User: Fold this.
Amino acid sequence: MAGVELQIEDKIAWIFLCDSEMNVLNHRFLKEIYNALVEADKKAFAMILATKTKNFCAGANLREIEALSFEEAIKWFETYLDVVRLLRSIGKPTIAAVRGYCVAGGNEIAMACDLVVASKNAKFGQPEVRVGSTAMGLGVQILPLLVGEKRARELLLTGRIIDAEEAYRIGLVNRVVEDSEVEKTAKELAKEIIENCSPQAFRVIKSGLNSWTQFAMSNYEVARDLTAMVWLSKEFRERCDEFLQKKKFKPREFFGITR
Assistant:
């Protein structure tokens, strides 16, 4: 797998994201992540998503997204959803070991994990609103349940990026450690679970936790289709170009519903 390295050690699967410096998500990369998770499920008791680059994941590859047809966008989003659904539903501990940027789809993948260990240099957020996308891959649904509605509204509606300490303070991550301690701490958490906890009880508790958050995920198909339509819009494609060319975003009119 070109963009993913899978290593099994002490019954723990390390899934290293190493596709690019920012690990932006394209269709091929998403399939590789999913396939690595499936393979890890067969061979390990716990899974740690980490990175061998400076950043965990900076979200979707905008160049690829803006070139998709509606049908291609549906397939892209479904492939992405395969990854987050598997992370949420798998009956084994999943831990994100995060350094650098963990934003947009990257933050959603981290949120889909059971636990998040962050380096002090990590950055988190859902900046999709700035480029005209939706954050409906998990951000809109799950972020309010993790950090509270008002904090989630601020992050989602402004696209603000926060540091690891603030992410810890609002409940988005479990631990903040020195950069050199990220993998070690993630491994310690994984071993604490697999060496001391009942696999059956763990699976049932995780399913129980998912049962109340699953209500927020019941609009997957609507989120997928609406996002695909947004990706086809002129405004999204213009803002993608502005972002990728590092231009200042052109101000646009906000429309209300009253007459």
